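Tokens in:
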């Protein structure tokens, strides 16, 4: 493995609903994922995040795993319904106390706390008032950011406003496979704009409370055009605008791209200035490229997704394409030039069906190969001049993978859910050695 620049941030990521459990403890309010997971047929194994990895009660053990890994940073998310059980009103002290303990434990272990404010677990009460379709949710989000930063702003080392607003819009509100389960297709655009507006308002709220840098974590997928007709080209451009540009062009001061579904009536005067508030870091979550060709006649979508041949595949059936990460980082650099802040890869990882052997060891050579390839891709991008300053593995622990329930394992650490026993996999040792070097 080649050398990385001094000060490069190595970390791992998780999110609240996927690991914490304790969903009714210490006054936490219900979130849209509590509701969605209870609806029949939504989650493949019928599970919920009620217990997940029981991290709420085991955070000290998990912090010790981070210390053993030697990472310099840990990206976790804060559950809005712990801080404001109904999404409005004063901070709920018992909810913030948990994150206070977590943050202090991380600092004592020499690990920088990196906090994401919204990783999809909207308080149910806000959803009942229209959720992200309602412009007021943006203002509520800024209020929640303010309350959280008032308590933790002196110790969190990097703030991330939103996690993957594109996925929350498209899966949660476009096709309904994630909470809140709406199927609006392109009528979901207000969810994009109101999340970005909430981001911009939250940046201002955070700046008033903390000197720490502020970021957003976007999901990107380089488009592989399949076919070579004008219609294929138009389809590839439409998908690229939706997935890769809709949530980045306006942030970096370019306004919205010409993307399917964009409704100018949702954008009020002055909004574009609010959401283009300067950020210090762009978080990049990358898993795989997307194959796109022209849609069949009569399709409701302006593109069709096609499986990409010729790649190894993860247990999610996602293609393993580290070159896509290099391509994406170079594309961001080319596209935005000087407007691009330093990048940190805030998620990169893979699911495999990891099973402990007779001695209880979990050997996961595919994950090591996956991470090795992606870390090298980052290095190549840095060598080519892209300012990348960090890399976070998704994920520290096997955890509750949204609509896939407990059936997909992404962790460097295996979790036996019935006993909650944690077993570091061979990829944990590999990553520890890499970080050490
Ligand atoms: C999300 C994570 C998720 C991971 C793997 C990302 O889209 O931020 O919460 O577990 O992908 O699907």
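Residues out:
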């Amino acid at each position: 493995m080649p050398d990385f620049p001094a000060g490069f941030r190595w970390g791992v990521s998780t999110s609240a609903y996927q690991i914490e459990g304790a969903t009714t403890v210490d006054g936490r309010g219900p979130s849209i994922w509590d509701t969605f997971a209870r609806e029949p047929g939504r989650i493949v194994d019928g599970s919920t995040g009620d217990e997940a990895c029981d991290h709420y009660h085991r955070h000290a053990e998990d912090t010790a795993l981070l210390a053993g890994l030697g990472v310099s940073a840990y990206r976790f998310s804060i559950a809005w319904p712990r801080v404001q059980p109904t999404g409005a009103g004063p901070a709920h002290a018992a909810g913030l106390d948990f994150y206070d303990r977590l943050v202090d434990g991380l600092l004592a272990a020499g690990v920088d706390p990196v906090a994401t404010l919204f990783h999809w677990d909207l308080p149910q009460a806000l959803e009942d008032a229209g959720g992200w379709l309602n412009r007021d949710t943006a203002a509520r989000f800024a209020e929640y950011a303010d309350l959280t930063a008032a308590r933790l702003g002196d110790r969190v080392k990097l703030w991330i406003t939103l996690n993957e607003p594109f996925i929350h819009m498209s899966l949660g509100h476009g096709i309904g496979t994630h909470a809140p389960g709406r199927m609006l297709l392109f009528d979901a655009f207000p969810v994009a704009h109101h999340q970005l507006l909430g981001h911009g308002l939250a940046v201002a709220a955070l700046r008033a409370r903390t000197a720490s840098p502020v970021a957003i974590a976007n999901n990107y997928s380089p488009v592989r055009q399949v076919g070579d007709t004008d219609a294929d080209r138009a389809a590839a451009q439409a998908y690229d605008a939706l997935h890769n540009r809709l949530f980045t062009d306006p942030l970096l001061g370019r306004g919205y791209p010409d993307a399917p579904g964009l409704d100018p009536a949702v954008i009020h005067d002055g909004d574009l200035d609010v959401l283009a508030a300067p950020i210090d870091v762009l978080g990049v979550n990358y898993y795989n490229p997307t194959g796109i060709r022209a849609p069949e006649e009569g399709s409701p979508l302006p593109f069709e997704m096609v499986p990409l041949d010729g790649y190894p595949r993860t247990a999610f059936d996602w293609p393993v394409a580290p070159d896509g990460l290099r391509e994406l980082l170079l594309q961001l650099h080319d596209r935005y030039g000087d407007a691009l802040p330093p990048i940190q890869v805030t998620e990169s990882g893979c699911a495999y069906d990891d099973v402990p052997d007779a001695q209880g060891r979990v050997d996961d050579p595919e994950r090591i190969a996956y991470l090795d390839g992606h870390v090298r891709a980052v290095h190549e991008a840095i060598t080519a001049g892209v300012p990348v300053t960090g890399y976070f593995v998704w994920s520290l622990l096997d955890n509750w993978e949204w609509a896939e329930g407990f059936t997909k394992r992404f962790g460097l650490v295996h979790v036996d859910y019935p006993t909650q026993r944690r077993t570091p996999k061979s990829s944990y040792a590999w990553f520890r050695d890499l970080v050490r070097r």
